[in-house]
């Protein structure tokens, strides 16, 4: 069975909810899904997955959350050629660098040789109905990239 691994960082619960929405959508599309908080896993765990997903929030003025920094650094050391990745998460449009951590992770994944399977999804604070639809479409696009 195709394995998707989702790693998330969440301070308020918004990004955890985003990760859960993506996980449920992927399960509904027939994938096996493992979801973990970023301090509970190593970046190298992505080597066992077919689909690699990071869900993160952006802290303050565009910073990566402290708790995901080690994971981010370790990700840069991996060769994930042949893997499909996706990035999603939350931010606050109040800040100038809205959801910058998502862009940072996308760049980091590309340096690993992984292939971007779907456009990143950025959610302003908590997921609303339109965001849920976008996250479900994100999951569908990732699965189509696996099969493509």
UniProtKB/TrEMBL annotation:
This is Flavodoxin. InterPro entries: Flav_short, Flavodoxin, Flavodoxin/NO_synth, Flavodoxin_CS, Flavoprotein-like_sf. Its cofactor is FMN. SUPFAM superfamilies: Flavoproteins. The keyword Transmembrane helix does not apply. Keywords: Electron transport, Flavoprotein, FMN, Transport. Low-potential electron donor to a number of redox enzymes. It comes from the Bacteria. GO terms for molecular function: electron transfer activity; FMN binding; oxidoreductase activity, acting on NAD(P)H. Residues 4-143 form the Flavodoxin-like domain. Belongs to the flavodoxin family.
């Amino acid at each position: 069975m195709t394995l998707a691994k989702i790693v998330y960082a969440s301070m308020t619960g918004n990004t955890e909810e985003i990760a859960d929405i993506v996980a449920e959508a992927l399960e509904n599309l027939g994938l096996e899904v493992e979801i973990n908080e970023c301090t509970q896993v190593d970046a190298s765990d992505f080597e066992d997955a077919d689909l690699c997903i990071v869900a993160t929030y952006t802290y303050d003025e565009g910073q990566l959350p402290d708790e995901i920094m080690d994971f981010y650094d370790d990700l840069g050391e991996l060769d994930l050629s042949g893997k499909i990745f996706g990035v999603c998460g939350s931010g606050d449009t109040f800040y100038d660098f809205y959801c910058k951590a998502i862009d940072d992770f996308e760049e980091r994944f590309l340096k690993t040789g992984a292939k971007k399977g779907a456009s990143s999804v950025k959610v302003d604070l908590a997921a609303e109905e339109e965001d849920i639809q976008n996250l479900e479409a994100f999951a569908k696009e990732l699965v189509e990239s696996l099969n493509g």
